[in-house]
Amino acid sequence: MTIGTPAIETPTPPVDGGKTANRWQYWIFAIPAIIFQFFWGWYPMLIAIFLSMTNAPIRGAITFQGLGNFERLFADPLVADSFKITFIYAALSITLTFLIPIFVAILLMEMPPNLMRVMMLLWFVPLSGIASTIFWQYLYNEQFGILQYIATGVLGMPPQAFLSSERWVLFWLVFPGILMFGPGLYYMTGLQSIPKSYYEAAEIEGAGFWRKIWTISLPRLRPIISMTLLFSIIGTMQEFSFPDLMTRGGPNGASRTVVMYMFNILSNGRYGDATALAVMLFIVIMAMVLVYRTVYKDDPDI
Amino acid sequence: MRATCHFLLPMSSITVSHLVKQFANPESGESKRAVNDISFTLGEHEFLVLVGPSGCGKTTTLRMLAGLEPVSSGEIFFGEKRVNETRPKERNVAMVFQDYAVFPHMTVYENIAYGLRSRGAPAAMIKERVPKAAQIFRIEHLLQRKPRQLSGGERQRVALSRAMVRDADLYLYDEPLANLDAQLRYQAREDIMALHKEKQKPSVYVTHDQSEAMAMGDRIAVMNGGRIEQIGSGAELYERPNSLFVAYFIGTPSINLFDVEILAEDQALFAVSTAFRLRLADSHLDALRPYSGKRIKMGLRPEDLHVPRLATFLVSPENQIQGVVNVVEPSSTGCAVYLSTLDETSRDYVATLRTRMPATYLGKEVPLAANMAKAHYFDPATEKSILVAI
Predict the structure, then answer these.
(1) pTM of the model
(2) Which of A211, A299, A302 shows the shortest C-beta gap to B118?
């Protein structure tokens, strides 16, 4: 098997025209990475692709089933539903937790340094994932939650269903992301690396607040935005733990993502189907990444 | 001349009055005055150079004029209008930055057009002006390039074109030549003067290079420690420096400074050190008489020291210095000779000679005639010039 090779680039000889006899030294340095890539990256993936075409039992003989697993999944309406839910979840999550932090970061940069530090602390305060999940469950509680109090007591709206609403559950699942996590810190570092003189020159050339953002901040953040967007796509398409802890996929499966459904199938002992679903998700994400990389061209001028 | 009489000046002039910039140090709580009470006026077409060593407050002054730095106290007037609180974009100034601040993600064309677009200029005007401004600085063939593909000199010309394309009321330059190599610097200097000649608007130019200041400025303000030491034309600063700092800062090689004692004999005064005894020029007698018997600093410009045979004044034993030649540096006009006196403190002094001195003179003792009518004298306590009444 020559699976390990794609993990590293062909070593380029040093500029001074190093001897090819020294190539083995490059390999020594590359071995840890190759081993890691192989056992935790390529090997499980290939095995998964292979197992997705079998009954994948934990014990006993493996029987090859061709595309039978996939056929079963295509016939299952819940699979299509979970993909739909995942796409909506990813789209919502990217618009809310990806776009908003860009503008929050830009606004933070405009604040006086002391206020900025306090806001950054509030925004990026390190919280335990489980703890904040429990915290949010309390906030969303339909009888005693503070959000219910705000909705009925302050805004005078009828009682809200929050996580029990099939229509709104995905929105409420994404909502904490605005406050809890955002790639905001990356944007802040990106913004801080922009030379001050660009803004000063723009200001002298008559640019106002929005023009400075549009013509300097955003173009200069482009590489960071593009990278975070890619990671956001990959990450949200595989979302599992937060919705699982909050809703267990409910109400009535309205927040059951692909990975959650995969977990359900797995719990029912349908290992082959679960692996096939994983492979399907992999292909979908890979296709999205490839489309993204073709549409987005790296700008060498940044 | 330094009085703030802005009401007498034409509309488009700039008046700076008792300007102060105070920076608070957040750690120690102390505040430091980067600019400490400076005042000057700028004529309608004047090119003023602020020159001084690092940290003298020249850039801070420029940034306050641009509106990039808030004023701690004092006032800035553009014509009749007080602009202390006016934002940079409303001041209608153009500025060239030390790092050029050319936007790397825009083409040269977009960079030059930026200010016009910000101010909502009509498309036809942008189309007409941008290539014209680029042409003046010989970058019209680079309009579609990105700054990454340009050399440092070309990037600088993009910055100049961007400043040129609009009609600003005040042009500001923050050490625009500091990042260029010597040859490009000379060309860029001419480009800036061309811009000034075309626009005929008040300009303030900041540099730490006194030769640049001398070559470019209609007037030069020498700054030190947040204050303006002296403001005047290059010739004024050179011939009549009002302080030791200005005398030493202006001119390359620097002025020679000697610790001398003034001694009175008959009606004459002599500047005496262990190495020489020089008779003071008659024109200086009145000013120096109060200092007789005291130690002061005497300054002699390198070009006021001559080979006796070529001196344009009367040479006598009373205006000669003996020196040992240490280094001879040829230059286009003659040579710079580094000598040490026979003094026990063997600090070098420099003479620039109009003729070439052969290398065989190295290590030899030579006489030099000092043009005492051009000598400068400074009070060692106040470091002010004794000759120039302030």
Answers:
(1) 0.78
(2) A211
